[in-house]
Write a structure and sequence with these properties.
Strand content: under 5%
Order of helices and strands: HHHHH
Number of helices: 5
Oligomer: single chain
Largest sheet: none
Helix content: over 70%
Shape: flat
Number of strands: 0
Length: 83
C-alpha cells in the first residue's frame, strides 16, 4: 500500500506544479518526505522558475526526513543555499 500512497503523493506534487499551486508545495513535500526525488525536483524547479527561491527552500526543508534519499535532499538544499 505504501507504493500507492507514494505515487498518489507524487501525482499531487505534479498537479500542484501544473496549476501553479506553490502555496501547497511545502505541505506536499512534507508528506512525500525524501522518497520521491523527481516529484520534489519538479516543485523545486517550478518554484525557482517563478523566482520563488523561498518556496524551493521550504520544499527541501520539508522533505528533509529519514528515508532513502535524505542525503540527496540535504545536498540539494545546501546547493540551493550556496547560489
Amino acid at each position: 500500500m505504501n507504493w500507492h500512497a507514494d505515487e498518489a503523493g507524487a501525482l499531487l506534487a505534479y498537479a500542484a506544479v501544473a496549476t501553479g499551486g506553490f502555496t501547497r508545495f511545502a505541505a506536499i513535500a512534507a508528506a512525500l518526505g525524501s522518497v520521491n526525488i523527481p516529484a520534489l525536483d519538479s516543485m523545486v524547479q517550478a518554484a525557482l522558475s517563478w523566482k520563488r527561491r523561498d518556496v524551493a527552500e521550504q520544499v527541501l526543508m520539508a522533505a528533509d526526513q529519514p528515508g532513502p534519499h535524505q542525503d540527496l535532499v540535504r545536498q540539494r538544499l545546501a546547493e540551493l543555499r550556496s547560489l
